[in-house]
Amino acid sequence: MEVKDIRIKSDSAKALMKQLEASGGFTAKKLGASTRILREMLDDEESLNFLSFPADVVATGTRGVLRDMVKEKWFDILITTCGTIDHDVARSFAKYYHGTFEADDAALMRRGIHRLGNVFVPRKNYGELIERKMTAWLEEFYSAGKNEMSTSELCYDIGSRLTDESILYWAWKNKIPVIVPGITDGAVGYQIWQFSQNHKFKVNILKDEQMLADRVFEAKHSGALILGGGISKHHVIWWNAFKGGLDYAVYITTAQEFDGSLSGARMREAISWGKLKAKAKHVTVDGDITVCLPLLFASLVS
Prior knowledge:
Layout: H1 12-22, H2 26-43, E1 47-52, H3 63-71, E2 77-79, H4 82-93, E3 97-98, H5 105-110, E4 113-116, E5 119-122, H6 127-143, E6 148-149, H7 151-159, H8 167-173, E7 178-179, H9 187-196, E8 202-203, H10 205-218, E9 221-227, H11 230-240, E10 246-253, H12 267-272, E11 276-286, H13 289-301
Parallel strand pairs: 1-2, 1-9, 2-7, 6-8, 9-10, 10-11
Antiparallel strand pairs: 3-5, 4-5
């Protein structure tokens, strides 16, 4: 069975989220509160809004929710990982399929199938496809005189070559920068490195940082929907420390804080670093992005 992107049309989620917050019960209350905080953030015309997320969810139908958020221009800047480009490119031209966590991985390897949780990714639909596409595109960029590009410029040009089912397409269409601080950590990044072996081509990550500095220093308010942790989360909160912290933040995570990890850190910890204002409107939701985000999006579009 093919992986299908989620498309939200129902208006029943708005009422449900209000009931969840009113329930006073554990994660339900937090998820309900996240809708209220995000609505206020999106309605604040003076707020510079960030969306950060990990790559794994782009391999699932949740990609459709992320795409539609970008299509609706809810966010001014996206920060993610290299795998997001990988999966967005791959799924623009090929299919991923339903699988199972309990699959025999040795058998999958022999059959040429990668397993991402309970999603099956045929090898020919991933690395081989990305190699073909990136080799051709990088040659195009280079022939056009682009021998040094920031990650946001790379994502912009790649997005112009994808279908309207993709996240990067709508980021390109709406001129929303997509920044990938860890650009070499994925199939697309590997192809960039390989291309650079025979071409004088560079990725200028400091150009992305300058753009972030220019946008953040000018922002009166700022907010973020942070999905998962790692480098994407930290890049958002790190830069917002330079304007005194985020004014709004919704964080959805499955990580635990007992090990001191950034991914497990609740948003309140960011206050001590100046990355979140002490009086900011914020909530940390303990939950799976693939469950929480569609509900959150549905409640906001209804």
